[in-house]
Amino acid sequence: MPDVITGSTQLSPTYQQAIATAAQKELLANAELSPFVTDVSQFAVKGNNQIKFPKLASFTVDARASGVAGEAKTLAASVDVLDLNISQYVSWLIDSNDEVQSRLDVKMEYAMRAASAHGRGLDAQIRLAIVNNAGYVATATALNEKIVDAKAFLKRNQANLAQLVIGCSPEQEAALLKVDAFVRAEYVNQGVVSSGVLGRLYGVPVIVSSAFEDDEIYMWEQSAVALGFQRAPNYASQPAIEYGTTAVREAMDLLAGVKALQIGQGTGTTAGNSGLIAKISGAIVP
To answer: Is the overall model pTM greater than 0.85, yes or no?
Structure first.
């Protein structure tokens, strides 16, 4: 009886799965903003092209005198809609002769870099949701006043203080590190942790993201932005023998949606924006 040999036919699917799994981890590791929003992927099921988030107004209480009927009330209802319309795609093709002469595992290296590109692409979408939907702009001059005013706005709108975050551009990181109140031990955690948190200012973690531009600094509550994957990063390949017997055309794509939530809700919120996002405008002044 001939030997039973496990070859490329059997192993190829597992190799692709290994790449897809590693790529998804790479995407999450290189996404600077994604960890600080709400993941709603469990609702992005097959057959849907949107996720709807119901919003209800709040009740107010009345004083009811003895023997007098209370007045029945109703709540106004509306929805925020997340469109699953972010279709990101990266493809590459390597000549088989050049690949065999490279000392790198080119296939895996390209897959990792494709995943990183997807992470940056999603961060850009999250930034747009934050920048375009800030319900408040802090206009004070001093940094401490801006942070306190922004935090007060979010707190007034029932933000969960444990889920607040400040995001800034690399340029503003440089400015922050020149502010005594930020670098003093009583204001900032010691050391930079792996989550990308630079430190804390008035109890709010500060992250730095290259997705933010120039003088951009924002504070938001994590439930202010939703991110949903309808299809997580997926990898596939096919032979491309016109470029050599081992050449392979490879691709990685995903389907997702990003949406700012609580639009039009909250005290002091500008029209059409979120009461859980605040802009700290302009360059930092100590």
So the answer is: no
In order, the DSSP letters of the chain are: -PPP---HHHHHHHHHHHHHHHHHHHHHHH-SSGGGSEE-GGG--TT-SEEEEEEE---------TT-PPPP----EEEEEEE--EEEEEEEEE-HHHHHT-SS-HHHHHHHHHHHHHHHHHHHHHHHHHHTTEEEEE--SBHHHHHHHHHHHHHHTT--GGGEEEEE-HHHHHHHTT-HHHHSTTTS-SS--TT-EEEEETTEEEEE-TTS-TT-EEEEEGGGEEEEEEEEEEEEEEE-GGG-TT-EEEEEEEEEEEEE-SBT-STTPPTTSEEEEEEE-SS-B-
pLDDT in tens, 98-155: 665 555 567 777 888 888 888 899 999 999 999 999 999 998 888 778 889 999 999 9
